[in-house]
Amino acid sequence: MTSLGLVLIALTLRREKWVLRVGVGLGLPCLALNLLALWQAPGPVLDLLGHALLAAFYGFTAAVFLKHILFSHSMRVERATLYESACVYLLLGLFWGTLFSFIEHLSPGSFHLDLALTDRHLDWSDFLYHSFVTLTTLGYGDLVPVAPMARSLTLLEAVVGVFYVTALVARLVSIYRPADAERERRRCEHDHG
Known about the structure:
With 193 residues, the chain is mainly alpha-helical. Helices cover 75% and strands 3% of the residues. The relative contact order is 0.09.
């Protein structure tokens, strides 16, 4: 599933050649490591490299989309802008989840999972869960960062999540035009009725 996501995300980076080159340069090794993992365990060094490259890919893609949203010269809120906004939020969650997984692989025990809930080892889905719980500032507390680096990055993710929503709403409100909304409403009525 991650492999398909990598390919789809890379296809959306076609706007500028340098962006596509960097995206493919980060995405292809991730894809290769994902495919390698289907046949054999990649080992600790390749596993760390895979996590680092995947986090870089997600972070780069989110930054490209965010730059387009915040600094676009368009004076209208278009569907593409809303889709990109949602994608950035999801990519931020994937970025941080991958980064947390990287930290746990680099320094085992950086995160603590409540043993009353389970007696298994942490995996990527746990870090993805922790990431989105942190990004949305929900904070259940069943997976807790205990190492200083893990705690700092968890705190930083919560701040990024709040600032992202604030900056996004401010940007969308600043380019919103009531005439565009009225035209869109009429078009929808015409399409549906």
